[in-house]
Description:
- Helix content is 71%, strand content 1%.
- By secondary structure, the chain is an all-alpha fold.
- Strands 1-2 form a two-stranded antiparallel sheet.
- The radius of gyration is 24 Å and the shape is globular.
- The protein starts with a helix and ends in a 15-residue tail after the last strand.
- The relative contact order is 0.12.
Amino acid sequence: MAAATAAAAATVTAAEVGAAVAATSGSYKGMSSDNVKGLVLALSSSFFIGASFIVKKKGLKKAGASGVRAGVGGYSYLYEPLWWIGMTAMIVGEIANFAAYAFAPAILVTPLGALSIIISAVLAHIILRERLHLFGILGCALCVVGSTTIVLHAPHERQIESVREVWDLATEPAFLLYAALVIAIVFILIFHYIPQYGQTHILFYIGVCSLVGSLSVMSVKALGIALKLTLSGTNQLIYPQTWTFAMVVTVCVLTQMNYLNKALDTFNTAVVSPIYYVMFTSLTILASVIMFKDWDRQNLTQIVTEMCGFVTILSGTFLLHKTKDMADGCISTATRLPKHADEEDGFGQEGIPLKRQESARTP
């Protein structure tokens, strides 16, 4: 009797262990086919966009050698084939990025935008002979590690059968509250703070771009899903929600371009790019978590791992931007100049502080 009881207990214990092992091995089921498609599209987008900067800069330099430089108001680059090749590559990259959102969650696609910075830096080192310093290489490595971490732990894409499902998600109280807060803050920044502080504080321009950008990505994702379903045979163009999302995308993108151009014209790229990347990516992930409930389909370990990957990408991005234009000597922080004080081929010196200095101060 005792032997039978012991055997039964051993059988139960073995069954429990087997179930635990199965649950552990099943906790990570690999990437879904949609996530793989989104990943490939996002990587392709990063390659084309990163390469486009290098090709366009080569075109700008070639055009500037025989005409008026773009940095002083010239448009001779419009006659330069290299510049148009770079512009075409950028358009292809943006289309691939748009398509990626139709297949994969924003928490996977958006952080991968940092890879375009790596590609641009590596190609600049090889083609333009712009030296990539040791810390820049470390920044590239951090971006790759962080991106890999996010890719391996990203949530599976929610299965959506109609654009009306996306509309239902967008009109839930939580996301409506987020959208209302974003719109209110944007209006306050545009009409109150930017007229007074826009030329001296970079965060106001970038804040508008990032806040509006988080709404534009959600609308781009909705529009991408609608187009994907339409191409697969389920026409979504008959629904007014599709056209509403298209209108939101148009308004948001135009607003982003306007204030991003203002930021780039006022402050240096080395300051604008990493801050914009951090704010835009963070707010986009937040918006996606609220609207598509990405984290509801994940456990705490996966969420924490994704956040660690994101912080790793941020660290790499800041390192790369901090060192990408460093010369052998260091630029003295006491003599940093405004953006337009020293430009070459339309690309100014990097490294001004967050507040624009109108003149160099002497002690």
